[in-house]
Specification:
This is DUF1849 family protein. It holds the Pfam family EipB_like. With about 300 residues, the protein is mainly β. About 10% of the residues lie in helices and about 45% in strands. The chain has a 15-stranded antiparallel sheet that branches.
Length: about 300
Amino acid sequence: MHRAIRACVMNAPRWRGVCMGAARMVTAGMAMGLVLGLMPPARGAETPTPLTPHRAVYDLTLQSVSGGQIVSASGSMTYVLSDACSAWSTQQELNLQTASRSGVQTEIRTDYAVLEDKDGGHMVFRTHQYGSGVTEQKISGEATMTATGGQVRYTQPGVSVVPLAAGTLFPVAHTRAIIAAGRAGQATIEPVLFDGTTEKGAIDTFIVLMGWKPPPAQTDIPALAHLGSVATHVAYYDHATHDMPPDFDIGMRYFENGVSDRLDMNFGEFRMRGTLRTFTPLPAPHHCSVMVTPHSP
């Protein structure tokens, strides 16, 4: 989730003044089974709650600055998860405005879309970043995974093929892995992620989980209050420089149905808070000829 925010920074130039100087930022059948197989549910655990198709709108507000050029930042993000029978459809739109000490204003927009097979074997992706003060960039293609690995075939910005290691997760599978680890009481996990926001293929993630919280939850969204949740911290690393500081990190509270209501985004020069403004469940499809159920955590 929230890949567009990470993509915004990962694909932008280093921000000098307005949009320059922040750190770079925004989850197979068998591949998902391999990772989740390392995280068995606790004994006596109930059947995991299915992911909820939904539309969520977040307000983004400046939380703090750390001595860089950015003095103000605001924005919004819309995230939509739809059930497309044998696949998950994810759409995310980010609109971020910043202002620098010298008065330069920048607007960054990122549109992100993914169609991910529920069995984890195939994914189609598209990322489009544009706005004032940033270089327009498009990344698109498709990825495939098998038990022994996979590959990405990029069609934009250029045609290329990049291998994926066995166990690499696509975005929704990555979210499911986080929730499964939280339910199992794990403290950390390190799944490899391919989400289509960079031309370099997969990225490393290191996730800290701060304890599963049973319901009721304190939340402004009544539809989520009866669900269990886990607070997480996700750090994203370039696969080639994993020992270096992360490209981006984000704190989130995930509910067991895959919805997040709190975001804490570290852009390097500044931090932003994301607050869930509206949450709308979406209907499940009624006329699927074949329904594919992902491996249970």
